[in-house]
Protein backbone atom coordinates (compact mmCIF):
# COMPACT_ATOMS: atom_id res chain seq x y z
CA UNK A 1 0.00 0.00 0.00
CA UNK A 2 2.88 2.37 0.54
CA UNK A 3 3.74 2.50 -3.13
CA UNK A 4 0.24 3.62 -4.07
CA UNK A 5 -0.50 7.39 -4.44
CA UNK A 6 -2.37 8.98 -1.58
CA UNK A 7 -5.55 9.20 -3.65
CA UNK A 8 -5.70 5.41 -3.98
CA UNK A 9 -4.74 4.28 -0.48
CA UNK A 10 -7.40 2.41 1.56
CA UNK A 11 -7.99 2.55 5.24
CA UNK A 12 -7.39 -0.52 7.37
CA UNK A 13 -11.09 -1.01 8.14
CA UNK A 14 -11.77 -1.73 4.42
CA UNK A 15 -13.37 1.59 3.44
CA UNK A 16 -11.80 3.66 0.71
CA UNK A 17 -11.74 7.40 0.21
CA UNK A 18 -14.13 8.96 -2.21
CA UNK A 19 -12.47 8.99 -5.62
CA UNK A 20 -13.40 10.63 -8.90
CA UNK A 21 -15.65 8.49 -11.13
CA UNK A 22 -12.91 8.24 -13.76
CA UNK A 23 -10.55 6.41 -11.37
CA UNK A 24 -13.04 3.74 -10.22
CA UNK A 25 -11.61 1.24 -12.67
CA UNK A 26 -8.16 1.63 -11.09
CA UNK A 27 -9.50 1.08 -7.55
CA UNK A 28 -11.53 -1.96 -8.54
CA UNK A 29 -8.39 -3.74 -9.70
CA UNK A 30 -6.84 -3.63 -6.17
CA UNK A 31 -7.42 -6.45 -3.75
CA UNK A 32 -10.13 -5.99 -1.14
CA UNK A 33 -9.94 -6.65 2.59
CA UNK A 34 -12.39 -9.53 2.30
CA UNK A 35 -9.64 -11.80 1.07
CA UNK A 36 -7.39 -10.81 3.96
CA UNK A 37 -9.90 -11.48 6.77
CA UNK A 38 -10.03 -15.28 6.36
CA UNK A 39 -6.25 -15.39 6.47
CA UNK A 40 -6.25 -13.31 9.64
CA UNK A 41 -8.68 -15.70 11.29
CA UNK A 42 -6.42 -18.62 10.50
CA UNK A 43 -3.35 -16.92 12.06
CA UNK A 44 -2.26 -17.72 15.60
CA UNK A 45 -3.18 -15.25 18.33
CA UNK A 46 0.37 -13.87 18.54
CA UNK A 47 0.38 -12.98 14.84
CA UNK A 48 -3.11 -11.52 15.10
CA UNK A 49 -1.98 -9.21 17.88
CA UNK A 50 1.04 -8.11 15.91
CA UNK A 51 -1.06 -7.48 12.82
CA UNK A 52 -3.53 -5.51 14.92
CA UNK A 53 -0.78 -3.29 16.21
CA UNK A 54 0.53 -2.82 12.70
CA UNK A 55 -2.88 -1.84 11.38
CA UNK A 56 -3.33 0.68 14.20
CA UNK A 57 0.00 2.29 13.35
CA UNK A 58 -0.87 2.44 9.66
CA UNK A 59 -4.24 3.97 10.51
CA UNK A 60 -2.61 6.72 12.55
CA UNK A 61 -0.17 7.47 9.73
CA UNK A 62 -3.03 7.59 7.30
CA UNK A 63 -4.97 10.01 9.48
CA UNK A 64 -1.93 12.25 9.67
CA UNK A 65 -1.53 12.30 5.90
CA UNK A 66 -5.23 12.63 5.13
CA UNK A 67 -5.63 16.39 5.84
CA UNK A 68 -2.66 17.16 3.67
CA UNK A 69 -4.07 14.98 0.86
CA UNK A 70 -7.38 16.70 1.06
CA UNK A 71 -5.58 20.01 0.98
CA UNK A 72 -3.58 18.89 -2.04
CA UNK A 73 -6.59 17.65 -3.92
CA UNK A 74 -8.63 20.70 -2.99
CA UNK A 75 -6.44 22.98 -5.12
CA UNK A 76 -8.27 24.01 -8.28
CA UNK A 77 -6.81 25.39 -11.49
CA UNK A 78 -7.69 28.90 -12.62
CA UNK A 79 -10.79 29.16 -14.86
CA UNK A 80 -10.19 29.06 -18.63
CA UNK A 81 -9.28 32.23 -20.47
CA UNK A 82 -12.18 34.17 -21.93
CA UNK A 83 -11.77 35.97 -25.26
CA UNK A 84 -10.85 39.63 -24.77
CA UNK A 85 -11.88 42.13 -27.40
CA UNK A 86 -10.01 45.20 -26.10
CA UNK A 87 -6.57 44.39 -24.74
CA UNK A 88 -5.77 47.90 -23.63
CA UNK A 89 -8.93 48.30 -21.58
CA UNK A 90 -8.45 44.91 -19.99
CA UNK A 91 -4.92 45.76 -18.93
CA UNK A 92 -5.98 49.14 -17.56
CA UNK A 93 -8.80 47.47 -15.67
CA UNK A 94 -6.40 45.02 -14.12
CA UNK A 95 -4.02 47.81 -13.15
CA UNK A 96 -6.84 49.73 -11.43
CA UNK A 97 -7.41 46.98 -8.81
CA UNK A 98 -6.33 48.40 -5.43
CA UNK A 99 -3.67 46.56 -3.43
CA UNK A 100 -3.66 46.33 0.32
CA UNK A 101 0.00 45.75 0.95
CA UNK A 102 3.18 44.30 -0.40
CA UNK A 103 2.53 41.03 1.46
CA UNK A 104 -0.82 40.69 -0.27
CA UNK A 105 0.82 40.98 -3.68
CA UNK A 106 3.45 38.46 -2.71
CA UNK A 107 0.83 36.08 -1.38
CA UNK A 108 -1.17 36.33 -4.58
CA UNK A 109 1.90 35.57 -6.65
CA UNK A 110 2.76 32.65 -4.38
CA UNK A 111 -0.73 31.18 -4.69
CA UNK A 112 -0.68 31.41 -8.46
CA UNK A 113 2.82 29.96 -8.54
CA UNK A 114 1.66 27.10 -6.32
CA UNK A 115 -1.36 26.51 -8.57
CA UNK A 116 0.90 26.31 -11.60
CA UNK A 117 3.26 23.88 -9.91
CA UNK A 118 2.67 20.22 -10.75
CA UNK A 119 4.35 19.11 -7.58
CA UNK A 120 1.61 20.61 -5.41
CA UNK A 121 -0.88 18.31 -7.17
CA UNK A 122 1.15 15.13 -6.99
CA UNK A 123 3.15 15.24 -3.72
CA UNK A 124 1.90 15.93 -0.19
CA UNK A 125 2.73 19.33 1.17
CA UNK A 126 5.48 19.51 3.78
CA UNK A 127 6.67 22.03 6.24
CA UNK A 128 9.63 23.07 4.16
CA UNK A 129 8.96 23.81 0.43
CA UNK A 130 11.30 22.39 -2.23
CA UNK A 131 14.43 24.31 -3.08
CA UNK A 132 13.36 25.27 -6.59
CA UNK A 133 9.98 26.55 -5.39
CA UNK A 134 11.66 28.67 -2.72
CA UNK A 135 13.90 30.22 -5.36
CA UNK A 136 10.88 31.03 -7.55
CA UNK A 137 9.04 32.59 -4.60
CA UNK A 138 12.08 34.64 -3.73
CA UNK A 139 12.36 35.82 -7.32
CA UNK A 140 8.68 36.76 -7.44
CA UNK A 141 8.99 38.69 -4.18
CA UNK A 142 11.97 40.61 -5.55
CA UNK A 143 10.03 41.44 -8.68
CA UNK A 144 7.06 42.70 -6.69
CA UNK A 145 9.29 44.94 -4.58
CA UNK A 146 11.15 46.34 -7.60
CA UNK A 147 7.99 47.11 -9.55
CA UNK A 148 6.13 48.59 -6.59
CA UNK A 149 8.29 51.69 -6.62
CA UNK A 150 7.89 52.10 -10.35
CA UNK A 151 4.11 52.16 -10.07
CA UNK A 152 2.83 55.70 -9.76
CA UNK A 153 -0.93 55.23 -9.54
CA UNK A 154 -1.07 52.88 -6.57
CA UNK A 155 -1.83 49.76 -8.54
CA UNK A 156 1.53 48.14 -7.83
CA UNK A 157 0.05 45.03 -6.28
CA UNK A 158 -1.82 43.78 -9.31
CA UNK A 159 0.84 45.06 -11.71
CA UNK A 160 3.59 43.32 -9.75
CA UNK A 161 1.65 40.10 -9.66
CA UNK A 162 1.11 40.33 -13.39
CA UNK A 163 4.79 41.08 -13.98
CA UNK A 164 5.85 38.23 -11.70
CA UNK A 165 3.61 35.77 -13.50
CA UNK A 166 4.88 37.02 -16.83
CA UNK A 167 8.43 36.47 -15.61
CA UNK A 168 7.65 32.96 -14.41
CA UNK A 169 5.88 31.83 -17.52
CA UNK A 170 7.65 33.89 -20.14
CA UNK A 171 11.18 33.07 -19.21
CA UNK A 172 12.20 34.91 -16.07
CA UNK A 173 11.52 38.59 -16.70
CA UNK A 174 8.41 40.65 -16.47
CA UNK A 175 9.24 42.94 -19.35
CA UNK A 176 6.88 43.57 -22.22
CA UNK A 177 9.19 41.84 -24.66
CA UNK A 178 8.26 38.36 -23.38
CA UNK A 179 5.75 36.11 -25.03
CA UNK A 180 4.21 34.73 -21.81
CA UNK A 181 0.56 35.33 -20.81
CA UNK A 182 -0.49 38.16 -18.51
CA UNK A 183 -2.94 37.43 -15.64
CA UNK A 184 -5.92 39.76 -15.36
CA UNK A 185 -8.47 40.16 -12.60
CA UNK A 186 -10.80 37.20 -12.54
CA UNK A 187 -8.06 34.74 -13.45
CA UNK A 188 -8.16 35.36 -17.23
CA UNK A 189 -5.00 35.57 -19.30
CA UNK A 190 -3.83 37.40 -22.39
CA UNK A 191 -1.18 35.85 -24.59
CA UNK A 192 1.35 38.52 -25.50
CA UNK A 193 2.73 38.35 -29.04
CA UNK A 194 6.36 37.42 -29.33
CA UNK A 195 8.69 40.00 -30.77
CA UNK A 196 10.29 38.87 -34.04
CA UNK A 197 13.95 39.67 -34.27
CA UNK A 198 15.41 41.04 -37.51
CA UNK A 199 17.66 38.00 -37.76
CA UNK A 200 14.65 35.69 -37.68
CA UNK A 201 12.91 37.73 -40.40
CA UNK A 202 16.00 37.54 -42.59
CA UNK A 203 16.24 33.78 -42.08
CA UNK A 204 12.57 33.34 -42.88
CA UNK A 205 12.91 35.42 -46.06
CA UNK A 206 15.97 33.40 -47.06
CA UNK A 207 14.01 30.16 -46.54
CA UNK A 208 11.16 31.48 -48.69
CA UNK A 209 13.59 32.48 -51.44
CA UNK A 210 15.22 29.07 -51.26
CA UNK A 211 11.82 27.36 -51.48
CA UNK A 212 10.85 29.54 -54.43
CA UNK A 213 14.13 28.75 -56.17
CA UNK A 214 13.57 25.05 -55.60
CA UNK A 215 10.07 25.35 -57.05
CA UNK A 216 11.37 27.07 -60.18
CA UNK A 217 14.07 24.42 -60.51
CA UNK A 218 11.43 21.70 -60.35
CA UNK A 219 9.36 23.46 -63.02
CA UNK A 220 12.37 23.86 -65.29
CA UNK A 221 13.21 20.21 -64.73
CA UNK A 222 9.71 19.23 -65.84
CA UNK A 223 9.99 21.47 -68.89
CA UNK A 224 13.31 19.89 -69.78
CA UNK A 225 11.66 16.48 -69.44
CA UNK A 226 8.91 17.59 -71.86
CA UNK A 227 11.55 18.81 -74.33
CA UNK A 228 13.37 15.49 -74.10
CA UNK A 229 10.10 13.68 -74.70
CA UNK A 230 9.62 15.76 -77.86
CA UNK A 231 13.09 14.81 -79.08
CA UNK A 232 12.76 11.14 -78.08
CA UNK A 233 9.45 10.70 -79.88
CA UNK A 234 10.87 12.53 -82.89
CA UNK A 235 13.75 10.06 -83.05
CA UNK A 236 11.32 7.14 -82.89
CA UNK A 237 9.20 8.76 -85.63
CA UNK A 238 12.22 9.19 -87.92
CA UNK A 239 13.05 5.54 -87.34
CA UNK A 240 9.52 4.54 -88.41
CA UNK A 241 9.82 6.63 -91.57
CA UNK A 242 13.17 4.97 -92.25
CA UNK A 243 11.53 1.55 -92.19
CA UNK A 244 9.02 2.69 -94.81
CA UNK A 245 11.54 4.37 -97.12
CA UNK A 246 14.51 2.04 -96.70
CA UNK A 247 12.35 -1.03 -96.28
CA UNK A 248 9.11 -1.12 -98.26
CA UNK A 249 9.96 1.42 -100.96
CA UNK A 250 13.48 0.06 -101.51
CA UNK A 251 12.18 -3.50 -101.78
CA UNK A 252 9.43 -2.55 -104.23
CA UNK A 253 11.93 -0.73 -106.45
CA UNK A 254 14.44 -3.58 -106.28
CA UNK A 255 14.24 -5.49 -109.62
CA UNK A 256 15.91 -8.53 -108.06
CA UNK A 257 13.39 -8.81 -105.22
CA UNK A 258 12.23 -12.31 -104.35
CA UNK A 259 8.70 -10.94 -103.90
CA UNK A 260 7.44 -9.99 -107.40
CA UNK A 261 5.45 -6.78 -107.71
CA UNK A 262 1.89 -7.16 -109.09
CA UNK A 263 1.23 -5.83 -112.54
CA UNK A 264 -1.39 -3.41 -111.21
CA UNK A 265 1.30 -1.61 -109.20
CA UNK A 266 3.72 -1.19 -112.08
CA UNK A 267 4.05 1.98 -114.12
CA UNK A 268 4.39 4.39 -111.22
CA UNK A 269 1.21 3.41 -109.42
CA UNK A 270 3.24 2.38 -106.37
CA UNK A 271 4.07 6.05 -105.87
CA UNK A 272 0.43 6.73 -105.04
CA UNK A 273 0.79 4.34 -102.10
CA UNK A 274 3.48 6.39 -100.36
CA UNK A 275 2.80 9.91 -101.66
CA UNK A 276 5.48 12.40 -100.58
CA UNK A 277 6.62 10.41 -97.55
CA UNK A 278 10.21 10.32 -98.83
CA UNK A 279 10.42 14.13 -98.77
CA UNK A 280 8.94 14.18 -95.27
CA UNK A 281 11.50 11.61 -94.08
CA UNK A 282 14.50 13.43 -95.53
CA UNK A 283 13.47 16.77 -94.04
CA UNK A 284 12.91 15.33 -90.56
CA UNK A 285 16.12 13.31 -90.66
CA UNK A 286 18.45 16.00 -92.00
CA UNK A 287 17.00 19.21 -90.52
CA UNK A 288 14.10 19.11 -88.09
CA UNK A 289 15.40 16.38 -85.75
CA UNK A 290 18.84 17.97 -85.45
CA UNK A 291 17.28 21.37 -84.72
CA UNK A 292 15.06 19.85 -82.00
CA UNK A 293 18.06 18.19 -80.37
CA UNK A 294 19.69 21.62 -80.04
CA UNK A 295 16.55 22.98 -78.37
CA UNK A 296 17.15 20.75 -75.35
CA UNK A 297 20.14 22.92 -74.45
CA UNK A 298 18.55 26.12 -75.82
CA UNK A 299 14.77 25.89 -75.17
CA UNK A 300 14.17 29.48 -76.32
CA UNK A 301 14.89 28.37 -79.92
CA UNK A 302 11.88 26.01 -80.07
CA UNK A 303 9.24 28.62 -80.94
CA UNK A 304 11.24 30.27 -83.74
CA UNK A 305 12.12 26.82 -85.11
CA UNK A 306 8.45 25.90 -85.55
CA UNK A 307 7.79 29.28 -87.14
CA UNK A 308 10.57 28.77 -89.69
CA UNK A 309 9.30 25.26 -90.46
CA UNK A 310 5.70 26.29 -91.19
CA UNK A 311 6.05 26.02 -94.96
CA UNK A 312 7.74 22.63 -94.75
CA UNK A 313 5.05 21.35 -92.41
CA UNK A 314 2.47 21.85 -95.16
CA UNK A 315 3.95 18.74 -96.75
CA UNK A 316 1.63 16.90 -94.39
CA UNK A 317 -1.38 18.55 -96.04
CA UNK A 318 -0.31 17.09 -99.40
CA UNK A 319 0.36 13.72 -97.81
CA UNK A 320 -3.06 13.61 -96.13
CA UNK A 321 -4.77 14.61 -99.37
CA UNK A 322 -3.31 11.48 -101.02
CA UNK A 323 -4.02 9.27 -97.99
CA UNK A 324 -7.47 7.99 -99.06
CA UNK A 325 -6.11 6.82 -102.43
CA UNK A 326 -3.20 5.15 -100.65
CA UNK A 327 -5.53 3.30 -98.30
CA UNK A 328 -7.57 2.01 -101.23
CA UNK A 329 -4.52 0.64 -103.09
CA UNK A 330 -3.04 -0.98 -99.97
CA UNK A 331 -6.36 -2.67 -99.26
CA UNK A 332 -6.48 -4.11 -102.79
CA UNK A 333 -2.96 -5.59 -102.57
CA UNK A 334 -2.90 -6.64 -98.93
CA UNK A 335 -1.31 -10.05 -99.65
CA UNK A 336 1.63 -8.55 -101.52
CA UNK A 337 2.43 -6.03 -98.76
CA UNK A 338 2.12 -8.76 -96.11
CA UNK A 339 4.75 -10.82 -97.94
CA UNK A 340 7.03 -7.81 -97.94
CA UNK A 341 6.45 -7.33 -94.20
CA UNK A 342 7.41 -10.95 -93.48
CA UNK A 343 10.55 -10.64 -95.58
CA UNK A 344 11.57 -7.38 -93.87
CA UNK A 345 10.66 -8.87 -90.45
CA UNK A 346 8.51 -5.89 -89.47
CA UNK A 347 5.85 -6.19 -86.78
CA UNK A 348 3.42 -3.61 -88.16
CA UNK A 349 1.66 -3.91 -91.49
CA UNK A 350 2.04 -1.23 -94.15
CA UNK A 351 -1.33 0.38 -93.41
CA UNK A 352 -0.32 0.96 -89.77
CA UNK A 353 3.02 2.36 -90.85
CA UNK A 354 1.48 4.82 -93.31
CA UNK A 355 -0.73 6.33 -90.61
CA UNK A 356 2.34 7.39 -88.59
CA UNK A 357 2.75 10.82 -90.30
CA UNK A 358 -0.90 11.66 -89.62
CA UNK A 359 -0.54 10.73 -85.95
CA UNK A 360 2.70 12.66 -85.61
CA UNK A 361 1.40 15.95 -86.99
CA UNK A 362 -1.54 15.73 -84.59
CA UNK A 363 0.73 15.09 -81.57
CA UNK A 364 2.96 18.16 -81.91
CA UNK A 365 0.28 20.42 -80.42
CA UNK A 366 0.01 18.32 -77.24
CA UNK A 367 3.78 18.28 -76.72
CA UNK A 368 4.05 22.04 -77.27
CA UNK A 369 1.14 22.66 -74.92
CA UNK A 370 2.97 20.87 -72.10
CA UNK A 371 6.16 22.84 -72.75
CA UNK A 372 4.23 26.14 -72.84
CA UNK A 373 2.55 25.34 -69.52
CA UNK A 374 5.86 24.83 -67.72
CA UNK A 375 7.34 27.91 -69.39
CA UNK A 376 4.50 30.06 -68.04
CA UNK A 377 4.85 28.60 -64.54
CA UNK A 378 8.59 29.29 -64.57
CA UNK A 379 7.95 32.95 -65.44
CA UNK A 380 9.94 32.90 -68.70
CA UNK A 381 7.70 35.47 -70.35
CA UNK A 382 10.12 36.23 -73.18
CA UNK A 383 9.68 32.70 -74.57
CA UNK A 384 5.86 32.62 -74.31
CA UNK A 385 4.95 34.54 -77.54
CA UNK A 386 7.11 32.26 -79.71
CA UNK A 387 5.64 29.11 -78.16
CA UNK A 388 2.08 30.40 -78.56
CA UNK A 389 2.70 31.12 -82.22
CA UNK A 390 4.20 27.65 -82.63
CA UNK A 391 1.09 26.13 -81.03
CA UNK A 392 -1.12 28.08 -83.42
CA UNK A 393 0.82 26.68 -86.39
CA UNK A 394 0.46 23.17 -85.01
CA UNK A 395 -3.29 23.72 -84.78
CA UNK A 396 -3.72 25.10 -88.31
CA UNK A 397 -1.58 22.54 -90.13
CA UNK A 398 -3.24 19.42 -88.62
CA UNK A 399 -6.69 20.88 -89.28
CA UNK A 400 -5.80 21.57 -92.90
CA UNK A 401 -4.33 18.07 -93.21
CA UNK A 402 -7.45 16.50 -91.75
CA UNK A 403 -9.66 18.57 -94.06
CA UNK A 404 -7.66 17.46 -97.10
CA UNK A 405 -8.05 13.82 -96.08
CA UNK A 406 -11.81 14.32 -96.22
CA UNK A 407 -11.47 16.06 -99.59
CA UNK A 408 -9.36 13.16 -100.81
CA UNK A 409 -12.28 10.83 -100.14
CA UNK A 410 -14.50 12.82 -102.51
CA UNK A 411 -15.16 10.72 -105.61
CA UNK A 412 -16.68 11.34 -109.08
CA UNK A 413 -16.13 15.08 -108.99
CA UNK A 414 -15.71 16.52 -112.50
CA UNK A 415 -12.65 18.69 -112.35
CA UNK A 416 -9.60 19.16 -110.19
CA UNK A 417 -10.03 19.76 -106.49
CA UNK A 418 -6.78 21.68 -106.35
CA UNK A 419 -8.21 24.40 -108.62
CA UNK A 420 -11.17 25.14 -106.32
CA UNK A 421 -9.17 27.36 -104.02
CA UNK A 422 -8.79 27.10 -100.29
CA UNK A 423 -11.15 24.88 -98.34
CA UNK A 424 -13.01 27.25 -96.01
CA UNK A 425 -15.47 24.95 -94.28
CA UNK A 426 -16.89 21.46 -94.54
CA UNK A 427 -19.19 19.21 -92.58
CA UNK A 428 -22.57 17.46 -92.56
CA UNK A 429 -25.78 19.39 -93.26
CA UNK A 430 -29.40 18.23 -93.56
CA UNK A 431 -30.43 19.37 -97.04
CA UNK A 432 -33.58 19.43 -99.15
CA UNK A 433 -32.83 19.68 -102.86
CA UNK A 434 -34.90 21.75 -105.27
CA UNK A 435 -36.72 23.72 -102.54
CA UNK A 436 -36.57 27.49 -102.59
CA UNK A 437 -37.19 29.96 -99.80
CA UNK A 438 -40.63 30.82 -101.21
CA UNK A 439 -41.71 27.21 -101.77
CA UNK A 440 -42.40 26.06 -98.23
CA UNK A 441 -44.67 23.21 -99.32
CA UNK A 442 -41.87 21.59 -101.28
CA UNK A 443 -39.58 21.76 -98.25
CA UNK A 444 -42.18 20.33 -95.89
CA UNK A 445 -43.09 17.48 -98.25
CA UNK A 446 -39.49 16.20 -98.49
CA UNK A 447 -37.46 14.58 -95.80
CA UNK A 448 -34.08 16.29 -95.26
CA UNK A 449 -31.12 14.16 -96.27
CA UNK A 450 -27.72 14.30 -94.61
CA UNK A 451 -25.08 15.46 -97.09
CA UNK A 452 -21.43 16.37 -96.63
CA UNK A 453 -20.88 19.92 -97.89
CA UNK A 454 -17.48 21.32 -98.93
CA UNK A 455 -17.18 25.12 -99.14
CA UNK A 456 -14.23 26.20 -101.28
CA UNK A 457 -13.34 29.69 -102.42
CA UNK A 458 -14.68 28.93 -105.93
CA UNK A 459 -17.41 26.30 -105.39
CA UNK A 460 -19.65 24.74 -102.79
CA UNK A 461 -19.89 20.97 -103.35
CA UNK A 462 -22.65 18.66 -102.09
CA UNK A 463 -21.77 14.96 -101.68
CA UNK A 464 -23.53 11.87 -100.39
CA UNK A 465 -22.01 10.04 -97.43
CA UNK A 466 -21.08 6.38 -97.94
CA UNK A 467 -20.20 4.49 -94.77
CA UNK A 468 -19.72 5.70 -91.25
CA UNK A 469 -16.70 7.02 -89.43
CA UNK A 470 -15.25 4.64 -86.85
CA UNK A 471 -11.98 4.35 -84.98
CA UNK A 472 -10.30 2.59 -87.92
CA UNK A 473 -12.30 3.67 -90.99
CA UNK A 474 -13.61 6.91 -92.48
CA UNK A 475 -16.58 7.41 -94.83
CA UNK A 476 -16.28 8.19 -98.53
CA UNK A 477 -18.13 10.97 -100.31
CA UNK A 478 -19.84 10.67 -103.69
CA UNK A 479 -20.23 13.90 -105.64
CA UNK A 480 -23.84 15.01 -106.11
CA UNK A 481 -23.91 18.71 -107.16
CA UNK A 482 -22.06 21.99 -106.87
CA UNK A 483 -22.84 25.74 -107.07
CA UNK A 484 -20.35 28.40 -108.08
CA UNK A 485 -19.83 30.91 -105.27
CA UNK A 486 -19.86 33.95 -107.58
CA UNK A 487 -23.24 32.79 -108.95
CA UNK A 488 -24.97 31.96 -105.67
CA UNK A 489 -27.37 33.71 -103.29
CA UNK A 490 -27.71 33.16 -99.55
CA UNK A 491 -30.80 33.71 -97.41
CA UNK A 492 -31.26 33.08 -93.72
CA UNK A 493 -34.58 31.29 -93.02
CA UNK A 494 -34.22 30.86 -89.27
CA UNK A 495 -37.39 31.22 -87.20
CA UNK A 496 -38.89 29.76 -84.06
CA UNK A 497 -41.09 27.33 -85.95
CA UNK A 498 -38.62 25.76 -88.38
CA UNK A 499 -35.37 26.29 -86.45
CA UNK A 500 -32.02 27.23 -87.98
CA UNK A 501 -32.15 27.07 -91.78
CA UNK A 502 -30.61 28.88 -94.74
CA UNK A 503 -31.09 28.57 -98.49
CA UNK A 504 -28.48 28.46 -101.26
CA UNK A 505 -29.73 29.16 -104.80
CA UNK A 506 -27.82 29.22 -108.07
CA UNK A 507 -28.27 32.28 -110.31
CA UNK A 508 -26.37 30.65 -113.18
CA UNK A 509 -28.69 30.65 -116.26
CA UNK A 510 -27.62 27.11 -117.07
CA UNK A 511 -28.36 25.84 -113.50
CA UNK A 512 -31.13 28.16 -112.37
CA UNK A 513 -33.23 25.37 -110.87
CA UNK A 514 -30.48 24.23 -108.52
CA UNK A 515 -31.16 25.17 -104.92
CA UNK A 516 -30.83 23.72 -101.42
CA UNK A 517 -32.34 24.50 -98.05
CA UNK A 518 -29.81 23.45 -95.42
CA UNK A 519 -30.11 22.89 -91.67
CA UNK A 520 -27.07 22.72 -89.41
CA UNK A 521 -26.97 20.24 -86.50
CA UNK A 522 -26.44 22.99 -83.88
CA UNK A 523 -27.06 26.76 -83.67
CA UNK A 524 -23.31 27.34 -83.36
CA UNK A 525 -22.63 25.51 -86.64
CA UNK A 526 -25.52 27.38 -88.26
CA UNK A 527 -23.93 30.71 -87.37
CA UNK A 528 -20.52 29.51 -88.53
CA UNK A 529 -21.88 28.49 -91.94
CA UNK A 530 -23.77 31.75 -92.35
CA UNK A 531 -20.82 33.95 -91.36
CA UNK A 532 -18.35 32.05 -93.56
CA UNK A 533 -20.62 32.18 -96.63
CA UNK A 534 -21.35 35.88 -96.03
CA UNK A 535 -17.64 36.63 -95.93
CA UNK A 536 -16.82 34.75 -99.13
CA UNK A 537 -19.75 36.34 -100.98
CA UNK A 538 -18.63 39.78 -99.86
CA UNK A 539 -15.10 39.04 -101.05
CA UNK A 540 -16.41 37.88 -104.44
CA UNK A 541 -18.58 40.99 -104.85
CA UNK A 542 -15.69 43.27 -103.95
CA UNK A 543 -13.51 41.49 -106.48
CA UNK A 544 -16.13 41.95 -109.22
CA UNK A 545 -16.48 45.63 -108.37
CA UNK A 546 -12.72 46.05 -108.57
CA UNK A 547 -12.68 44.41 -112.02
CA UNK A 548 -15.63 46.34 -113.43
CA UNK A 549 -14.83 49.81 -112.07
CA UNK A 550 -11.47 49.88 -110.28
CA UNK A 551 -11.47 53.68 -109.79
CA UNK A 552 -14.87 53.70 -108.10
CA UNK A 553 -13.89 50.74 -105.96
CA UNK A 554 -10.67 52.47 -104.89
CA UNK A 555 -12.60 55.61 -103.96
CA UNK A 556 -15.01 53.54 -101.90
CA UNK A 557 -12.15 51.94 -100.02
CA UNK A 558 -10.60 55.34 -99.35
CA UNK A 559 -13.94 56.70 -98.11
CA UNK A 560 -14.44 53.78 -95.74
CA UNK A 561 -10.96 54.13 -94.33
UniProtKB/TrEMBL annotation:
Residue stretches in coiled coil: none
Polar residues compositional bias, start-end: 98-108
Gene Ontology CC annotation, any one: cytoplasm
Alphabetic keyword roster: Cytoplasm, Guanine-nucleotide releasing factor
Domain PH: 422-538
Biased composition (Low complexity): 50-64
Keyword Ribonucleoprotein: no
GO process annotations (BP): axon guidance; intracellular signal transduction
Chain positions covered by the region annotation Disordered: 1-108
GO MF annotations, alphabetized: guanyl-nucleotide exchange factor activity
One Pfam family linked to the record: SOS1_NGEF_PH
Gene3D superfamilies, A to Z: Dbl homology (DH) domain, Pleckstrin-homology domain (PH domain)/Phosphotyrosine-binding domain (PTB)
Annotated compartments: Cytoplasm
Domain DH: 222-404
SMART domains, A to Z: PH (SM00233), RhoGEF (SM00325)
Protein name: DH domain-containing protein
Organism: Anopheles epiroticus
Amino acid sequence: KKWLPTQFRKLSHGKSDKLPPVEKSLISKKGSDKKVKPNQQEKPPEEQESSTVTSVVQQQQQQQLEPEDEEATAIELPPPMKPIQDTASALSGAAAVPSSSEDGATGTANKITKALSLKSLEEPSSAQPPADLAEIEQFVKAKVESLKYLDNDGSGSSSAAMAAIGGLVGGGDGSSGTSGPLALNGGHTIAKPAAISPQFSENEAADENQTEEQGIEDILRKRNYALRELVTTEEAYVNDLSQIVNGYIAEIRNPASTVPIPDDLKGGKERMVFGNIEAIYEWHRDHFLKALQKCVQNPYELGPLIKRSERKLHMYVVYCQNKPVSEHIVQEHMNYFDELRLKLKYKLCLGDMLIKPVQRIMKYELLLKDILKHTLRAGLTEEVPGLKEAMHIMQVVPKAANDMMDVGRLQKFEGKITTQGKLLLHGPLYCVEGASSSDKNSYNSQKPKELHVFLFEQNIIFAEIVGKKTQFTSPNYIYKAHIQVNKMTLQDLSDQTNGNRFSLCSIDPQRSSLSYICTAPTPELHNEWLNTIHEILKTQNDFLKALVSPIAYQKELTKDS
